[in-house]
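We treat protein structure as text, and this decision shapes the records that our systems exchange. The tokens are whole numbers drawn from a learned vocabulary of local backbone shapes. Below, we set out a record of this kind in full and without editing:
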Amino acid sequence: MNEDQEAGEPASDEDVRDELPANLDTTAIATPYLFPNNSRRRIPGVLYILIGIGCIALVASAGDDAVMVNGGVSIAGIALIIVGLYHLQGGWDLSFDEEQALQAATRQVGFPVGHASAQLGWRGFRSRPTWRILLYSNEPSPEHRGLVLVDGIDGEIIDHFSEHNPEDWSAYQT
């Protein structure tokens, strides 16, 4: 602190230093980020099915005079089995990562890509993983932009849209 700050004076712009929190500093990362795979859904799916089977077996073995085991336990068992089956069928193996999806999207839009962003989403009842790739052309003020949907399992281009960039970037030119 300098003398002005001790007297209650506000700090000047030269004295203020912004610092990125350690958990957001990407320069400290030694290994590439590995996106979590959807196939992890299979583990809770199997557990739900086993617990559901256990609930139904408990109702079957408890008999009619059981106080704590009733029809609600069998309904819970059936519900757990249904949820477990849904998890098993939605546990797709994400074999097409974001770098491969970006390469496929770049080939699809037909212009040199500068900035791009990848987001993983899911489509359909079966929750099939789909990469949503937003791309801008490689000029200082991007002239084109595009959106490409790439299947996360086999890399198929599901849909794409590209256009002349309608945004006005003139205020940001130096």
Remarks:
- The chain has two domains: 38-89, 98-172.
- Residues 38-89 form one domain.
- The first helix runs from residue 3 to 6.
